[in-house]
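S1.2 Input.
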Amino acid sequence: MKRKDLLKALDKELYDKLFGFCYARTSNSYEAQKFCSDIVFALVKAANTAGEIKDPYAFIWRVARNVYADFSEKRRQSTEHAFTEDPEGIMADLVDTEEENEDDEALQRIFRSIAFLGRAYREVMIAYYLDDRPIAEIARMQNTSETAIRQRLFSARQTIRNEVTNMNTIQKPQVLDPIDLVIWGTGDPSWDDPSEVCTRQLSKHIVWSCKKKPKTAKELSEELSVPMLYVEEELEILCYGKKGKYGLLRRLENGRYAINFILLDAAQIERAWAIYTEHIPMVCDKVSAFIEKHKEEYLAFPYLNRKIDWNLILWQQIVFLADQFSKHVYSVLSSKYFPNEKEVTRPYSNYGYLYNGRFWGHGWDGIAAYNVCGYHQVRLTNIYIARIKAHFHYGHNVSEDGLLQLAIRAIHGLPIDSLSEKEKEGSAKAIESGYLYREGNTLYTKFLVHDEKDNDKLFSVTRKFREEFDRDVEPLVKQIAELIRSSVPDYLMAEYGFVNDLAGLPVLDTLVEALIERGILIPPENGIGAEGVWMCVSKE
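S1.3 Output.
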């Protein structure tokens, strides 16, 4: 897409998402509108520059995050200015010093102490001492009584006096050590994906601290040595999520904040992975026997390809084969160990672990196109794991991908003589990428293709694989159940299945490697090919 066409991508749905992004990071709708306007203005400026954008959606969100960084810096500078104005004569009753330089140091400690007060106390101190507002006006602003304001002022003064008297209680700002949380999700992320607001180190530290033990804002402020105003703001964002429907934290009745999703520490995730990977040889044996037993059924599926490649069928089915194993474990967990826990039904859920140097990254993306190359609908799917690179990702535009269009046109054969010179150059790259193969003067689609009417039967054989385990998984299930009970708080126990999902993350990659070692699966050269890619087409 050319930059001048950037604003065409900014439809109402995307604008609403941008406003939700702004609202989660501001204190009121007025401020959110101003923040959102700044983002749109930045996009307008970008649209008036030369050049092209490969992924407009990603570009828009990158601009939004850059504007937020500028917005946050301006807000920080404004806050610092409010605390560093000349405070001569203000709050003199809080400090008993004789030398001028000692007064300055004491006042600095006072201002820092105010930053670590809770919001209600902090706002009263600022309004009364720095903004010079009378108590009656402050009471009206906060919709409370003058007595309540006086009580807050008294309590805040006592807190600050104690901290100024004992300098050891005033910690220096802490540089937060980098930590990373690997957060997965399942369901529809457009509903609300709170992991998108957990990108800053402060966010991650707060989430991690609340995972270990529910804490108040003040406890978090003291533990992280971060002023309360920043901690309180971050807590609001983390509880709100992206759209206010689902947050990574929840506020308890006692005012403490607790983790609101399954999050395992390093020891727990290592134990979880070990439980599953110990059983991979057994799973590999069963997969080998199963596919040999049902080979003719797999080959009988009515693919539209000129040639059917057995290796490609196995790569298409491998995710489902691995998935049947973990699904069977879950079914035993739910029936035998957690029969009274109702499965979570929210549209989207997060679960994750503290990054420990290992990441089992795999995915399954699907894209669709309509009225393209003579077909009413075309749906393409690809998997990607350590052994296979992705050809495309969610949101990929088929109408702008010449190689995929060649593959669609070549389902029943595409004469090379019918191609333009540019298309002939593209076909060479498509062959290299595993989209096409050549027979004589005709190109054919290499990756698997089937008709939409047969879609329900695509994995019907593989679904039988779960029946192969029976009692073989009992030791594994027992260990997973013990891990769940020791790592999941009672109020999240209904989400116990996500612990099983995390434990099963290594299954696909380790099973693939075992099958490759036995010669059952053949990987693509350089990680890219027709393996793991398939297409579904419909004429009507």
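S1.4 Remarks. DSSP finds 19 helices and twelve strands in the chain.
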